[in-house]
Amino acid sequence: MKRFLGLLAVIFITSTANVAYGQVKELPGYLSPFFSKDSYYIANEGRVHIVDGEMGLLASGTGDILDLKSLKITYIKDATVYTVGEKGEAGIVFFDKGYWSIEEGRGFWRYLEADTSDAPTGAFTDHSFAYTWDNAKTYCNDLSEGGHENWFLPKIDELGKMYDLREKIGGFKTSADDYPWYWSSSEFDYDDAWFQYFNVGYQYLNYKVYHISVRCARAITTI
Questions:
Q1: Taking the model in full, what pTM does it have?
Q2: Is the pLDDT confidence value at 63 over 60?
Q3: Alpha carbon of 84 to those of 2, 113, 165, 185, 194: distances in Å?
């Protein structure tokens, strides 16, 4: 569905705690003819606006009006820049997407960071390495740490990136004697899900009812 609100007065935006904006680098095809090179994307309290530098507000709304997932913003004024392998907001940054965009369930984000410690053992069971697949997801989804609550169990490809940076992130089990297996959120079928070995780097399937380790991650959504 496409709707435009017409041409309004030019809007001058400044950066505040609740407003972020940047030059639009890529647009859905149906929007491209309407924008000049000076178009800007503004994210403000959950709504998205597209502003043309010469003509003013051209489009505004949420997902039913604009295809927000296809908008890729490579520059946002005054946005904090993070470096992979270094400290983020509440952990260590292990992935830089290269642009800001909206993803269902994760919000408007560019960077992913890893918690610096495993989920505590025995939180759900008496097993020494703690978590079934369902319990692993529940633990991360309920986690409140570092002033943030948007933690999740990482996908298998994200766990691979965390493995590559395991020494900088720290705290992982890496000895075969410690069962260095970590759940991902990636399912294979009803019974099986993917996990990552943190001693040799392999990725395998495991029964979801098995108990293995958990390391949570989160998307940095603060501009």
A1: 0.73
A2: no
A3: 37, 9, 9, 22, 24
